[in-house]
Write a structure and sequence with these properties.
This is ClpXP adapter protein SpxH. It is found in: Cytoplasm. Interacts with Spx. The chain is of the alpha+beta class. Helix content is 49%, strand content 15%. It contains 12 helices and 8 strands.
Length: 270
């Protein structure tokens, strides 16, 4: 860990931890490296979900936030809203989705990142953001109302306040808190290998980590819906070639589809 800067964070979580560790992940939903970060988080969840709870904090710093929120709020109809496009809108959309529940917000964030990765449509536009809500089976009418609401804007502003309070200046960043509320948090800035975060968990727990048995491939796709070949290979500690063969079998069984992507091999639950 000599190549990484670990910094104390004076802000402790305000709630009692249900698990020994609380992990804050600071992300920009449109950051090109967000999918790689998601892969690391998923492997940590599969292996060590019993040790930590997870909270995503959106950290898109935009001076024009209030102006663009006002522009969305001033739309009198969905048709007017269609033409609005701005980098702040995906973050507000995630917070609107979260108003339907934490799991709904997480599904929305992952699908948003998938859209950005595949570069199929403009994820900064209201039309695409509503389409994503439909695809992850949110209540679309409620989503559109919440998207224009002051609650979603305030929720995003709250994330920016947390970012400032924890002195996070780079995304992605991880902040770890243990169950002792008197201890300072541990901040790791930047995107590092899975092993770095695994080691930090072990050090914070002050003991050997017990790795959980990974679920079946079918259960894995039910949990995450979309995965890359490399993700599957990493989770099961098998070669990419072996993972590719197994995924092709699942495709022949019509359980998953392959999504065309120039940069990586992507698979999605049918």
């Amino acid at each position: 860990m000599n190549n990484i800067q670990v910094m104390p964070v004076p802000v402790a979580p305000t709630t009692t931890l249900s698990k020994p560790i609380e992990l804050y992940v600071f992300v920009d939903p449109l950051d090109p490296g967000s999918w790689n970060l998601q892969s690391i988080i998923r492997k940590l969840q599969v292996n060590y979900d019993q040790y930590f709870t997870l909270r995503f904090v959106l950290s898109t710093e935009l001076a024009s936030l209030n102006v663009d929120c006002q522009r969305v709020n001033s739309c009198n109809s969905d048709h007017e809203e269609i033409d609005v496009s701005h980098p702040v809108l995906p973050s507000i959309a995630v917070k609107a989705a979260e108003l339907q529940g934490k799991k709904a917000g997480y599904r929305y964030l992952v699908k948003l990142q998938e859209y950005a990765l595949l570069n199929m449509k403009n994820v900064r536009s209201c039309a695409t953001l509503v389409e994503i809500a439909e695809e992850v089976q949110l209540d679309t009418q409620e989503f559109q109302t919440d998207f224009r609401s002051i609650e979603a804007a305030r929720a995003f502003q709250s994330d920016l306040c947390i970012t400032r309070e924890m002195d996070v200046e780079e995304v992605p960043s991880f902040v770890f808190f243990n169950e002792n509320i008197e201890d300072e948090g541990l901040k790791v800035c930047g995107n590092y290998s899975y092993e770095v975060y695994e080691q930090i968990l072990e050090e914070l727990l002050d003991g050997e980590l017990i790795c959980q048995q990974p679920p079946s491939v079918d259960e894995l796709f039910k949990r995450y819906h979309t995965l890359t070949t490399k993700e599957v290979a990493s989770i099961y500690n098998i070669s990419v070639q072996t993972a590719e063969r197994e995924l092709k079998k699942k495709m022949l069984q019509q359980k998953i589809d392959r999504i065309h992507c120039e940069e990586l091999s992507l698979w999605r639950l049918k």
